[in-house]
Amino acid sequence: MADVRFDPLPWLILLPLAWAGLSFLLGPGRGARLALAGLSVQLALALLLAAQLLSGGAQIHAVGGWGAPLGIDLLADGLAAVMLLFTQAVALPLAAYARVYFADDPHGRATHAYFWPLLGFLLAAMNALYLSADVFNLYVTLELIGLAAVGLVAAGGGGSQVAAALRYLLVSLVASGAYLLGVALLYGVYGTVSIATLTPLISAQAPLAVGLAAALMAVALMAKTALFPFHFWLPPAHGGAPVPVSALLSALVVKASFYLMLRLWLGLFAPLSVPLAWLPGLLGVAAIVWGSIQAIRARRLKMLVAWSTVAQMGYLFLIFPLLAPHGVALQAGVMQALSHGLAKAAMFTSVGVLLRATQRDSVDALAGAAARLPITLFAFALAGMTLMGLPPSGGFLAKWLLLEAGLRQGQWVWPVAGIIGGLLAAVYVFRVLRQALLLAPPSSQFHPVPRSLEWIAFGLAGASVLLGLRGVEIMALLAVGGRS
Amino acid sequence: MSPGLIYALAGALLFVLGATGVIVLANLLRKILAFNLLGSGAFLVLVGLAQRDGGTDPLPQAMVLTGIVVAVAATALALALLRRLHRLTGQTRLPDEKEHG
Amino acid sequence: MTLNQALPLAVLASSLLPGLIIFMLAEQRVGMRTTLNLLGAITKLILVGVLLAGVHAGESYGFRYAVLPGLDLVFKADALALLFITLSAVLWLLTTVYAIGYLEGSPQRSRFFGFFSLCVTATMGIAMAGNLFTFFIFYELLTLSTYALVVHRGTPAAIRGGTVYLGYTLAGGALLLAGVAWLHSLLGQVEFTHGGVMAALGPEYAPQLRMIFLLLIAGVGVKAALVPLHGWLPQAMVAPAPVSALLHAVAVVKAGVFGMARIIYEVYGVEFAQSLDLLTPLALVAAITILWGSLRALTQDDLKRRLAYSTISQVAYIVLGLALFGPLGMIGALVHLVHQGIMKITLFFCAGNYAETLGTHKVSEMNGVGRRMPATTLAFSVAALGMMGAPFTAGAISKVWLSDGAQAADMGWAIWVLTASALLNAVYFLPILYRAWFRRAALAWPDEKILALGRRETDWLLLLPPVITAATVLAAGIYADSKWSPLYWAQLIAQSEYLLP
After folding, report:
1. Whether pLDDT at C389 is above 50
2. Residue ranges of the domains in chain B?
3. Average of pLDDT values for A43-49?
4. Buried (b) or exposed (e) across A138-173, using 16+ Cβ within 10 A?
5. Is C68 strand, coil or helix?
6. Which of A144, C31, C70, C360 is 20 to 30 Å from C214 at the Cα level?
7. Ranked by mean pLDDT, which of A438-442, C245-249, C413-417, C454-458 comes out on top?
């Protein structure tokens, strides 16, 4: 009996493309409502997909009816479904935030003239990345994500913003080029790009070219995730872009390349990865330390949050020395990615409110904010809780899983680094909170900010904390494996 | 040494040259040109390794076509940004990476 | 969900829900806020009463929630939990009344009472935690919610005090997390069980278990203000008096020693801990803290700081009792947990009264205060005498049982420590009493904010709580043999903890 079920896979890519194109045609600055409608449907589709996976196992969709190896396959397993759900769930509130934020923008329309079409393209590319089943398609989607993200960073900005965008673009392009070279080498050795076909072929005795390909792809993805020492492009780009763009980049875009690295490390290159597994871990520790120090020293609020992203990305790489398919470390990494995404989105959105209110991008100008903007400060504090890994947040759950994974395998260095990272995060989070809790000097002025902005920030922050209580469902979804 | 392998090695060399160029050169236009060199190198490797005895394999050539399209789009974006940067600041190099405070 | 599952959650909700609502209230809605506060406190007392009756009759109350496969949030209202819960619930009601009076007219009261309620919720969670994981979660929540109260006034001094507090408590939390996770990796979920769960591990684990014990005790020891982890407590006195009273004299420090009780008795098991030679070092640290706290208290002129160092010293009595091997020591420790709480809160209430009514912050300014504020000073005197272990007060009971426990455990030196401390207590309290009652007042008080009107010495909201708690100090001492006394309950707990195979 034919299994007639609605297949959400292609729609998750087509729908954002559609509303992106329509928004573009509508003209500059238009398309917000279209985007919100589209994202709502996408979120529903992602939930539907999750439900289907929990009951039926992994799903495959051949685009245009042509399957691999010549056609393009879309594959949804547990990890992909979790990332898809996460992406739509964060993008929707951010879109709502952006709509109000830009409407209220004193700088006029130029900064967000093409925000909505670019957002749509970005989402289409990210969804496509999570669903891709062959390494070349992944290259294409990686490039698309990069281009859309650069467009978002550069749009309507001044000299420094365009320079940051250019730097980001060049790093992104070199990284993608290295990745493509890796794809080329793999194809040269095995004659296929499909991940499902390649995985059983690669063993510990693979030829040198495969090892080279693995190294190229790993370096490329580390650069795209801004892992130390390839982190230098992130603070200017995330710190200089408009607030909704920064939120999208820090919360979602860097997770895409991290996801890909996980996939390749666990699936494709699993036999090769063991001897060098400590390297990403070590770089992760360096990222945590360096990123936290810079965040503690930052004068500008947005820069503080951007450097915090550098540090938190380091966290994600602590799991690599501990990975085994479907093991605890994988759960830790995914939990951390999700929690950080929600928390960073919350942090940037609350910072956006604070900047609008104080009309200055400075940590020192925040005195009195706790009294005037309590919801926003609460949102920042809750987001900070996740970053610090304090219970009951999702960040704490991730830290706990990391501890468990590390202690079980006798490698306690990485969890200890995680704990220290949490304490360092506390220093810069409380730097902001301390300043905001000070009584306002009599000369301070707070401009009014639309309430909905505050509540969206609060909602995102609350979600990052409550995520800590829903671990069971996420882990169940994660375990649905078509391939690890 | 088969022609395919020669192409592939040449492509690798171009890739390395291009990558070095992007990192080392200061002028943005040259960086963009170096990126194109890098991309061409990767394409050449792909095409070169596609030469198999008994005719060429069409799949990598299709992939290269896709790659060229992506590279063109990326170059266009980079050039547009470069022009914008020049119009706004009169510079054609990236400012020094100060650790922003 | 059965009633037995719902009751622990209801206890948490009785302060969490009003707290969340209060956050939303506009500053001027004084009536609404007061109503919510009192309603929550009274509801909680009623629920606690139900729990007490139930546990006494042999019922069990608990609730589980799966956070991750293999990791549960567990709540359990057993006898030890109820000791702490009852103390906190009763004192919360009194402190709420006090705080309403104390903060009248201050800014940001909604935020204050919101976080106040969160603190109590966290304390309840700590008390009812059924495993180390749950304990840890609420322990950290307590840190965060108390921080907001310490920095409440928003002055640079308050912010600085908060930063020191946070530094100590977050570091302690990190150590505790390391210990809990390590234990979890060895044993899986560690639920609190009478007699401990460690005996299952073989002797090759001993060095690891000693390390873990160190981490755990250091982690809870920060909140319990054991030397050298006590530095935050005097700094935290920058908080408003209700905060110092309830939180730093009762909730936070008691959470620390409560954690120690759970760890020693229900994770390690006291006999296992003794076999690993863990208890004697702990007793030594406690003894050092007792003496150090009392010595530092001698040199403090600021009243709240003197009381803070006194707290450091007195809480260490409890730790000493826990570390004495034998049921008598445990009874002494648990009963002092309650007694010290009510005595200390009385002292802090009175200190707050002096500051709020007369602007008196220092001992040197307290000349003749007894004549101006007789009821307050009477309460202060009763509590101070209790601290010294005077007869008919609660403090005497604690001292007797602790000394007996030390004797039974063959640690006679501990009796000397206790005696020395009692003497030191006399040295730093008696002068205050002398000044208050027998010296003539200065011509003008530093900052008299509430003028005396006939017999009225200060606002009745500020007067009632310390009078009530002082009366309780006397009652606990005189009626210690009744079935309603904390002593009886402590004996009950010790029976169940020491009745092990």
Report:
1. yes
2. 3-89
3. 92
4. bbbbbbbbbbbbbbbbbbbbebbbbbbbbbbbbbbb
5. strand
6. C70
7. C413-417
Neighbours of C73 (CB within 10 A): 20
User: What does the pLDDT read at residue B79?
Assistant: 94
CA–CA dist A387, A425 (Å, integer): 7
More confident residue, A327 or C471: C471
User: C73 to chain A: nearest residue by CA?
Assistant: A469
Handedness of CA C201, C206, C210, C212 (dihedral sign): negative
What mean pLDDT value characterizes chain C?
Answer: 86
CA distances from A253 to A95, C145, C217 (A): 15, 34, 42
Residues in Cβ contact with C481 at an 8 Å cutoff, skipping those fewer than 6 apart:
C487, C488
Q: Buried b / exposed e across C218-229, counting CB within 10 Å, b at 16+?
A: bbbbbbbbbbeb
Cα distances (Å, whole numbers) of residue C235 to A249, C295, C359: 41, 17, 20
**Best A166, A183, A232, A292 residue to mutate vs chain B (most B CBs within 10 Å):** A166
**A375-392 pLDDT tens trace:** 899 999 999 999 999 988
Beta-carbon contacts of residue C266 (< 8 Å; ≥ 6 apart): C80, C192, C193, C194, C195, C196, C497
Chain-chain contact of B85 with A235 (C-beta, under 8 angstroms)? no
Is residue C68 within 8 A of residue A475, CB to CB? The reply is yes
- C-alpha distances (whole Å) from C87 to each of A417, B97, C93, C341, C490 are 39, 59, 10, 8, 12
Chain A: closest CA distance from residue C145 (Å): 11
Interface check for B86 against chain A (CB to CB < 8 A): the answer is no
Q: Say whether A184 and B42 touch across the interface (CB within 8 A).
A: yes
Cross-chain Cβ contact A391/C154 below 8 Å: no
Dist CA A425 CA A423 (whole Å): 5
C358 close to C373: Cβ distance less than 8 angstroms: yes
Q: Tens of pLDDT along C45-63? A: 999 888 888 888 878 888 8
- Measure CB to CB from residue C137 to each of A391, A408, A415 and give the nearest one: A391
C422 CB burial (10 A radius; 0-12, 13-18, 19+): middle
pLDDT-wise least confident of C99-103, C342-346, C438-442: C438-442
Q: State the pLDDT at residue C500.
A: 44
What are the residues whose beta carbons fall under 8 Å from the beta carbon of C286, sequence distance 6 or more?
C226, C316, C317, C319, C320, C323
Out of A6-20, B53-67, C281-295, pick the least confident: B53-67
- Summarize the confidence of residues A103-124 as an average pLDDT: 82
- The pLDDT of residue A1 is 36
**A235 touching chain B per CB within 8 A:** yes
Nearest-10 crossing angle of helices C327-358, C79-102: 10
The larger pLDDT score, comparing residue A5 to residue C375, is at: C375
Rounded to the nearest 5 degrees, what angle is found at the Cα of A130, between the Cα atoms of A268 and A142?
Answer: 85
Tokens for A311?
């540090």
State both tokens at C208: 């690891």
Instruction: Name the residue in chain B with its Cα closest to that of A161.
Output: B85
Q: What is the pTM of this model?
A: 0.90
Could you give the 3-state DSSP secondary structure of residue C218?
helix
| Contact between A379 and A349 (Cβ < 8 Å) | yes
CATH of domain B3-89: 1.10.287.3510
* Residue A68: predicted pLDDT: 65
Higher-pLDDT residue of C410, A182: A182
The token pair that represents A282 in the structure block: 């070590």
d(CA B96, CA A456): 36
State the CB neighbour count (10 A cutoff) for residue C94. 23
- pLDDT score, position C258: 93
Burial label for A297, CB within 10 Å (0-12, 13-18, 19+), is middle
Q: Does C501 score more than 50 pLDDT?
A: no
pLDDT of residue A270: 80
